[in-house]
Amino acid sequence: MRRGHRRRRQRGFTLLELLVTMGITIIGLLGLMSLYVVTARSNALGAHSGEAVAVAEATVEEIRGTPIADLLAAHAAPSLPLDVSLDTVAGRAGMTFNRRVQVIELTAVSPNLVKIRVDVTWTDAGATAGAEGGIYDHQVSLELIRTASEAL
């Protein structure tokens, strides 16, 4: 009888304890999964932002090395200000970057200075531009001031 009595005292986990433990574990794992999703999205946004900055820098250097007269002739503009959309640039993972260039005279400062502004915009994959109030739209802008006669 003593052996039978000992077995009754040896208790394992009850079904209720196991269910509570599993519930707490699942809630913790769901929190980790949401953290993973947010981290992955942040990494993708950072990668796209870096790529957009590289596109903007390349465009600024391209414009910077072109004389103002050649810029105006290339876009059939009689004079400054110049506001044109350039060809889109394809990035990694099918991302498309739109480029816009503005060239403005800074006559208030000097008759020989111009400001070049390059805007690079993109939309998160699968979204349309302006959707849901523009929460999926992103933009990087670079500005450069140079003389009107400079072509470096």
Quick summary:
The protein is built from three helices and four strands. It is α+β, with helices and mostly antiparallel strands.
List the helices and strands and how they pair.
Layout: H1 2-9, H2 15-64, H3 68-74, E1 82-90, E2 96-105, E3 113-123, E4 137-147
Antiparallel strand pairs: 1-2, 2-3, 3-4
Describe this structure in words.
A 4-stranded antiparallel beta sheet has the order 1-2-3-4, covered by helices on one side. Helices cover 43% and strands 27% of the residues. The chain is α+β, with helices and mostly antiparallel strands and 152 residues long. The chain has one domain.
The fraction of residues assigned to DSSP E strands is 25-35%
For the largest beta-sheet, the strand count, sense and barrel status come to: 4 strands, antiparallel
- Cα(first) to Cα(last) distance is 101 Å
Q: How many helical elements? A: 3
Q: What structural class is derived from the secondary structure elements?
A: alpha+beta
Strands ordered across the widest β-sheet: 1-2-3-4
How many beta strands in the DSSP annotation?
Answer: 4
So what's the overall shape? rod-shaped
Radius of gyration (Å):
30 Å
**Mean pLDDT metric:** 88
Q: How many domain units?
A: 1
